[in-house]
Amino acid sequence: MPQLKPAIASTSAPVAKASNYFPALTGIRALAALMVFLFHAIMLKPTDHLPFLTKWAYRLGQEAHVGVNIFFVLSGFLIATRYKDSLTLTGAWFRRYLQNRFARIYPIYFLLTALTFGVMMLRPTQAFYEWREFFPSFLSKAVSIIANLTLTRAFFQDLMTIGVPTAWSLTVEESFYLSAPFLLIGLSYSRRLLYLYPVVFITMGLVLIPLSHKIFPHLGLFKTQDFMLSSTFFGRCTEFIVGVGLSYWVYQQNSRINGYATLLGGLGVLFGMVVLVALSLYPTISYLWHFFVSSLLLPLPIALLFRGLISEHTGLRKLLETRTFDLLGKSSYVFYLIHIGVLDTFFISYFTDNWLARLVFHVFVSILLFKYIEEPLHKRLRSR
Fold it and tell me: Which residues, 6 or more positions from 57, have their beta carbon under 8 angstroms from its beta carbon?
């Protein structure tokens, strides 16, 4: 494997070698998960009656769903960084790759999904993530379970939130995992394909909409253009591909933004959220504007922020590399899965709906699940 060279700047720092482990990027996973929690905690809160500054603070929080964008860009970067120099066109390599991806995301997801459907059948609460009135038959319920177990549910608009609510994004992740080796093979011949890949995937998504309506007009399979763009890999592909591009760019030494990437990236993300707030003030505006900002433009400052966290000495990097954020980052996947759903409903029903109490509860439970279930299962199941 060729040696990877760190970016050089007046404030540059050593880039992780060999293991391709970036402590600050583990820490930022915690921030991304907390952003998604904040979004769900206040997404429906009315803001019109609030004072001006408070109103805008809440409205920014209501755009904190961009934490998912951060996860997607990060996935693209990490997968490309780990595999682009070791990828081989052999069945053994693909088996190891898929086994490691399976071991990373599926075991704890499966356990939480089993818990969710068990509660759904034995103690239904009419929560939004449970079967609805259009799931009256055994067959429709069986299909929803199969779609959850195969991580294909988020191709269907009617199934998107059935089960572990936030796990719709795992369908998007799974789609990227399956396509990533082929994307990287193409990039080994020409880096210019980075610009072509989003066009290809978005076009494929647009074609799948009428095709799905004709072949399988059930359960909202690729139901609308807005759904395809917002909730499937075909619409969200740019976020991953920008992350892939970052894995090639991050080690370049002749960048003019060296020393300012963290600041510029952070400001860019904040500005993107402000633009999304502005767009939300016009509820009749086409979703294409939101898609343009959120999925096409916002990944760029996110990638720039990552570049800075890898190559620059900053206070933010120092904070994200602390043991606290390292633990929160490593347990962030579990936190992301449980912060709404069965466990959250249980806590609200028997204790309180106070958002701070819920946050503490989910952090505590996610750390326990990470240390005693997710991490041991991952080590046992991954390829050696």
Answer: none
